[in-house]
Specification:
By secondary structure, the protein is an alpha+beta fold. It contains 5 helices and 5 strands, in the order H-H-H-H-H-E-E-E-E-E. The protein has a domain at about 1-120: Winged helix-like DNA-binding domain superfamily/Winged helix DNA-binding domain (Arc Repressor Mutant, subunit A, Orthogonal Bundle), CATH 1.10.10.10. Helices cover about 30% and strands about 15% of the residues. The structure holds zinc ion.
């Protein structure tokens, strides 16, 4: 399962995310980089809530009085290096901007849950109905036939295939 992801989608650094924003005509402010990097810095599909939580539970700065005592003490990674609240509005606004510019895709896998996709390559998804996890697979070899003509005044903008999967052995509890 993870091989689908690793083959198609790799985590990006903050510098790469900033370049990606600019390539899509998005002014790369620090907060926008924070939000975009929360998504592009991983290989998972994340909801806005996931991103909000990720940003606001990152490691603390040297000005934080708890530094050196918490479970994240001394931990170095690619997250934002300073603690600052990123508001829900900023997360949603940035995601909407990235969507408008075609930098990410939005996937509605369940009526109540939208996941944002950092993978720009043409691909479709497995959706595990048990865990809610989405896994990528390449669009290359897949063909879809017999699609209806789009309604008047519209054109097809893409076809998203979601293959719903469940464990082979059904366990009953
Ligand atoms: Zn995907």
């Amino acid at each position: 399962m993870p091989r689908y992801h690793s083959a198609m989608n790799t985590p990006r650094t903050r510098q790469e995310v900033a370049a990606l924003l600019q390539a899509h005509g998005v002014h790369a402010t620090r907060q926008r980089i924070d939000v975009a990097h929360a998504l592009f810095g991983q290989t998972r599909h994340l909801s806005a809530e996931d991103i909000l939580e990720y940003l606001n539970t990152g490691p603390t700065t040297e000005t934080d009085t708890d530094l050196g005592r918490g479970p994240l003490a001394g931990r170095s990674n690619d997250r934002p290096v300073t603690r600052r609240a990123v508001s829900k509005a900023t997360v949603y606004n940035t995601l909407r901007l990235l969507l408008e510019r075609g930098a990410i895709r939005a996937l509605v896998v369940e009526a109540t849950r939208v996941l944002y996709d950092p993978n720009n390559a043409p691909h479709h998804h497995f959706f595990n109905t048990l865990t809610g996890e989405l896994t990528d697979f390449p669009a290359g070899p897949v063909t879809v036939e017999g699609l209806p003509v789009p309604p008047a005044g519209t054109v097809a903008d893409g076809v998203d295939i979601v293959v719903r999967i469940r464990p082979t052995a059904q366990t009953s509890r």
